[in-house]
Amino acid sequence: MVGKIAFLPGDGVGREVAGAARKVLVAAAQKYGVSLEFNECVFGGAAIDECGDPLPEQTKTVCLEADAVLLGAVGGPKWDGATIRPEQGLLGLRSALDVYANLRPIQVAKGMEGFSPLKKEIATDVDLLIVRELTGGLYFGKREEGMDTARDECLYTRAEVTRVARIAFEAARKRDGRVTSVDKANVLATSRLWRNAVNELHEKDYADVKLDHMLVDAMSMKLIQAPSSFDVVLTENLFGDILSDEASVLSGSIGLAPSASLGDGRRGLYEPIHGSAPDIAGQGKANPVGMLLSAAMMMRFSLDQAEIASCIENAISRALAAGRGTGDIGGKDSCMSLTDYICETL
Ligand SMILES: NC(=O)c1ccc[n+]([C@@H]2O[C@H](COP(=O)([O-])OP(=O)(O)OC[C@H]3O[C@@H](n4cnc5c(N)ncnc54)[C@H](O)[C@@H]3O)[C@@H](O)[C@H]2O)c1
Ligand SMILES: CC(C)[C@H](C(=O)O)[C@@H](O)C(=O)O
Ligand SMILES: [Mg+2]
């Protein structure tokens, strides 16, 4: 047995793509003669319906005892914002696991430029990694919500910035050696602290990595205009959420984008960057690729199975190169038929 996986399908298309990931993982594990233990738990809206709590104690315990947590997506109009609150739900889970660094790779691989809405010469060679701070900032500050006034506090400590920046610099060393830190330091005090802490760590431990800073508004333009000029993009929680949805479009669809959320230990939380997509849920239209790539990241980072991870990634690339795909990238497959094809070609 190589690993205990807390398996949280969640809601909407989360359930469809998580089912696809389980199928591919089981097939890949079988091929390599290893076994995986899946402990399925209710989470999100499904958990509210079952026991009135989006993150039941039992689910939290299974996640804290697992080697990795594999999550589909949560939410939907039926539950409003109740599936994601900081003290419960999705934000509660991220904070309980202390996974402060959310890695969101975006690639337009050679031969895949056709999926991108960008001109071929701009889409070529896009390969960037967004490192998003995940357990601080506006998402976790104090809130006041009155009829006519509301307030969301944005708070960052130097230690919170330094630990996620370290992950970004380490990742850059294994890639092209460049970090672009994104903030709004011309306006926000938290962004000035952010820039200062990133510079301090850079000077102290990572002078070999090329560092530059960019304001988030300019970054959202440059990401479309010159996406291949970026290697690692480091940013705070809210900016990272927005920029990663934007960046996912470069590769053709949000349904292609995976993520790994990591802390100080080996345990991680793996989920595609998209949500429960109520507009297409239950229709077999969801693209499973972002979820499958998240499962591959799980095998590599938390379960130490790099070979299985590569096997899954290669099968996905081959399927896309063969013209297979769901409707969001112009294909004719359903979530299930694409998943079955990937399983067969592992
Ligand atoms: N990590 C998460 O669990 C997560 C992430 C984002 C949003 N949400 C929640 O999901 C719900 C819906 O949010 P939303 O509609 O703003 O964002 P969404 O990401 O669910 O959907 C945005 C758009 O992308 C499309 N899309 C998403 N995933 C797709 C896939 N796999 N294949 C093809 N197309 C896909 C949808 O059809 C929709 O048009 C909300 O309740 C939100 O809070 C959860
Ligand atoms: C659902 C929401 C809280 C979540 C976030 O903003 O982190 C989602 O958009 C994501 O990107 O995982
Ligand atoms: Mg998001």
TrEMBL record:
PROSITE patterns listed in its UniProt record: IDH_IMDH (PS00470)
Entry's cofactor comment: Binds 1 Mg(2+) or Mn(2+) ion per subunit.
Binding site for substrate: 94, 104, 132, 217
Residues noted as binding Mg(2+) in the record, renumbered to the chain: 217, 241, 245
Reaction(s) catalysed by this chain's protein: (2R,3S)-3-isopropylmalate + NAD(+) = 4-methyl-2-oxopentanoate + CO2 + NADH
Binding-site residues for NAD(+), renumbered to this chain: 275-287
Site (Important for catalysis): 139, 184
Pfam families: Iso_dh
Subcellular compartments: Cytoplasm
Key words of the record: Amino-acid biosynthesis, Branched-chain amino acid biosynthesis, Cytoplasm, Leucine biosynthesis, Magnesium, Manganese, Metal-binding, NAD, Oxidoreductase
Domain Isopropylmalate dehydrogenase-like, chain residue ranges per copy: 4-342
Gene3D superfamilies: Isopropylmalate Dehydrogenase
Listed InterPro entries: IsoCit/isopropylmalate_DH_CS (IPR019818), IsoPropMal-DH-like_dom (IPR024084), Isopropylmalate_DH (IPR004429)
Known role: Catalyzes the oxidation of 3-carboxy-2-hydroxy-4-methylpentanoate (3-isopropylmalate) to 3-carboxy-4-methyl-2-oxopentanoate. The product decarboxylates to 4-methyl-2 oxopentanoate.
Summary of subunit composition and partner proteins: Homodimer.
Protein family (similarity comment): Belongs to the isocitrate and isopropylmalate dehydrogenases family. LeuB type 1 subfamily.
HAMAP family given in the database record: LeuB_type1
PANTHER family: 3-ISOPROPYLMALATE DEHYDROGENASE (PTHR42979:SF1)
NCBIfam families: leuB
Name of the protein in question: 3-isopropylmalate dehydrogenase
Gene of this entry: leuB
